[in-house]
Amino acid sequence: MDTPERFDAALKRLSAALEKLEAATERRLKAEALRANLEEELAVMQDDRARLAVELDGALARSSSLETTNDEVARRLDDASAAVKAVLNGLEREG
Question: What is the rounded distance in angstroms from the CA atom of residue 11 to the CA atom of residue 94?
């Protein structure tokens, strides 16, 4: 093989290697862009999770407060019902 043929073969190998390098670089850039998008989505989801956790804590506190209030109202209604029954029983005995 003479020098020009060897030179042409070397240029072809170099060209093929450069094409592979460019393709690998493009794949790497796409992968990095995808990773950046995924990291951004993860950050948004973590923010949403934190916000939802705070909202859930508030809702649980309100629910507990409502349960306590409901129990108190039920107790008072029972007391009032008992008082009304006692008054009615007293009126029946008198009448």
Answer: 122
